[in-house]
Design brief:
heterodimer, A: 177 residues, alpha+beta, five-stranded antiparallel β-sheet, two-stranded antiparallel sheet, 3 helices, 7 strands, 28% strand, B: 436 residues, alpha/beta, N-utilizing Substance Protein B Homolog, Chain A, Alpha-Beta Plaits, Rossmann fold, 3 domains, nine-stranded mixed β-sheet, 14% strand, globular
Chain lengths: 177, 436
């Protein structure tokens, strides 16, 4: 298993629209394992393939306290939404920022599992919010898109600065030794 | 997606206090979630939790005067938020405006934003009428001292006029006391080491291993703590090992041993020829006994068993010494566990008395002739202490009390009682019995 690199906003690649997965084979399943490892390590409760620069419709989720309820959705489609839920969201591609986002409170999703079998799932609360957040990624959308342009720009600038500093640290690893 | 921002100290305090008030969790257990906070935030969060619970009834009395209608039970978090805000204004040096704005800000987002205005109004009204509000609640002894009425009555029955001193002592910050591991080092050497690390302490006058620190520190700051040089233990609990008067080769039983402070002290003080069996019914707490013994490099048999069912664990070899640190109301350690004032109910006491009685009766046959049983509680209720021993002695003709002659505490009809704050110690009770 290997940990994957997570793209950070405002990286343009996060705006790519992902395409459906046709074949579900061992190679893909190995990739799914890597996505789980990346998500648990971050730590996060959901990760979309888009975030690790793989532009196919695939997400992994685990909202459980003990990290023992993994959920993988391939080619997910929301077939029903209702209600309103406002929750504070954060994102592994927007590290350090948390803002309130309004989403549907209940959803129904159709998807395939790792074996390629179709299933239907109804979700509410945090799980519903998380699924909507991850499917947005597959469509090239981020939670910051729901914020005011002022807030979004502030986050953009701070993250560009942060990534620049990080890159410099990586470039000169021995300077502090 | 990432789940929610890391919680602030104030936000965490509200969650902790709600867990105590709503689910009846002990404060010590509820505080485990503060491990995710960074050290300074965690210390502030602990201060808010201990302080708000210590003064809960008084703060709640003030809050009731400020509200036309109290908040609904489902909005307990808002009530607690108001109490934490009041606590900061009254007892901490938080600037008034910061206490108000930080409190209000916590419900700015999400479903509870309706409470913003009410909380702002409540705290500002308090600032305007502070003196008269505090005066009004302080006319009521229960509110002034933040103790439930049943406990005040019970303590008055036991201690008469001393009750006010006891209630006030219960609301003091407890000192941090430690016990030096005499198998590793001496108190004077350790005291020098402490001073070398900038920690000042005074010697416990009643034994040769105790130190009371001027200020609490994190155990990581104690010299060689993780190598077993010292342990955190109140001065009152440090008296048990001496009272047991252990001799070469003796077989010792420690009943209700967890978390193992006294167990370890016995082994530190005893010759290495003794054998000790430590039992406790709680597996998780017993884990602490094992960890403590490992850290201090001491050996004992530790078993997770029920003290009331000796046929499941007793091998027939009677004990020369038994320490029975019985489950009790913990009314002597309220200064360390202010949640006791809120969680303990008058109706809990008879069940505790019965349990103590049953334990004494069950364990007594395991004591050798001429052996010594030390009965200990951190209670200051006579019904769990002197009266308990009195009843036991009436039922057991082969028991005789060994009078404790000590410079600490005060003699009761049977046994010796330390009241909270006596010589800066926790409230504690000891009685020594021998088999004739």
């Amino acid at each position: 298993m290997a940990k994957l690199d997570i793209l950070h906003f405002p990286d343009k690649r996060l705006r790519t629209k992902a395409v459906n997965i046709i074949t579900i084979d061992d190679k893909l399943r190995r990739f799914i394992d890597d996505m789980y490892e990346t998500m648990y390590d971050a730590p996060g409760i959901g990760l979309a393939a888009t975030q690790v620069n793989f532009h196919k419709r695939l997400i992994v989720i685990d909202i459980s306290e003990d990290k023992d309820e993994p959920l993988c959705l391939i080619n997910p489609v929301i077939t029903h939404k209702d209600g309103v839920e406002i929750m504070q969201e954060g994102c592994l591609s927007v590290p350090g920022f948390y803002e309130n986002v309004e989403r549907a409170e209940h959803i129904t999703v159709n998807a395939l599992n790792q074996q390629g079998e179709a299933f239907e799932l109804t979700a509410e609360g945090l799980l519903a919010v998380c699924i909507q957040h991850e499917i947005d990624h597959l469509d090239g959308k981020l939670f910051v898109d729901y914020l005011s342009p002022l807030k979004r720009n502030r986050i953009r600038k701070k993250l560009i600065q942060m990534d620049k500093e990080l890159a410099q640290q990586v470039k000169q690893p021995s300077s502090t030794l | 997606m990432k789940n929610k921002a890391p919680r602030s100290a104030r936000e965490t305090a509200v969650v902790v206090i709600c867990a105590v008030l709503k689910q009846g969790k002990s404060l010590t257990d509820a505080l485990s979630i503060t491990e995710e906070l960074e050290a300074r935030e965690r210390a502030f969060c602990h201060e808010l939790c201990y302080g708000t619970l210590r003064w809960h009834d008084r703060l709640n009395g003030i809050l009731k005067l400020l509200l036309k209608k109290t908040f609904k039970p489902k909005d307990l978090d808002i009530t607690v938020l108001a109490l934490v805000g009041l606590y900061q204004i009254i007892y901490l040096s938080t600037p008034d405006h910061a206490a108000v704005s930080e409190t209000v800000n916590l419900c700015r987002n999400g479903k509870k934003s309706w409470a913003k205005g009410v909380l702002n109004g409540v705290l500002r009204n308090f600032l305007r009428n502070r003196e008269s509000l505090e005066k009004t609640v302080d006319e009521n002894l229960n509110l002034r001292t933040s103790h439930p009425n049943w406990l005040i009555q019970e303590l008055t029955k036991n201690w008469g006029k001393k009750v006010i001193d006891i209630l006030d002592a219960n609301n003091q910050y407890p000192p941090m006391s430690i016990r030096v591991n005499q198998k590793k080092t001496s108190r004077s050497t350790y005291l020098k080491q402490l001073e070398g690390s900038g920690i000042s302490a005074i010697e416990n006058p009643f034994n040769s291993v105790g130190l009371t620190l001027d200020h609490s520190v994190n155990v990581d700051q104690l010299p060689d703590f993780w190598q077993g040089a010292s342990s955190v233990q109140d001065g009152a609990a440090q008296l048990a090992a001496t009272l047991l008067d252990i001799k070469d080769g003796q077989h010792i039983l420690d009943v209700c041993a967890a978390p193992g402070g006294k167990t370890a002290h016995i082994l530190e003080a005893a010759p290495s020829t003794v054998s000790l069996l430590a039992i406790d019914i709680d597996e998780n707490r017993n884990q602490r006994v094992i960890e403590n013994l490992q850290r201090l490099q001491l050996n004992a048999d530790v078993m997770t068993v029920d003290g009331l069912e000796p046929n499941e664990w007793f091998d027939g070899k009677t004990f020369d010494r038994i320490l029975l640190d019985a489950p009790c109301s913990a009314t002597g350690v309220i200064r360390r566990h202010p949640d006791i004032k809120l969680l303990r109910k008058a109706s809990d006491i008879p069940a505790l008395i019965k349990l103590q009685h049953d334990l004494l009766n069950t364990i007594w046959p395991l004591l050798s002739k001429n052996g010594v049983l030390l009965y200990a509680t951190c209670s200051i209720l006579s019904s769990e202490n002197s009266q308990q021993i009195s009843a036991f002695m009436r039922e057991h003709a082969d028991s005789k009390e060994v009078k404790i002659t000590a410079e600490w505490g005060q003699p009761c009809e049977h046994g010796q009682q330390i009241l909270p704050g006596d010589n800066n110690m926790d409230g504690f009770y000891y009685a020594c019995l021998t088999k004739i």
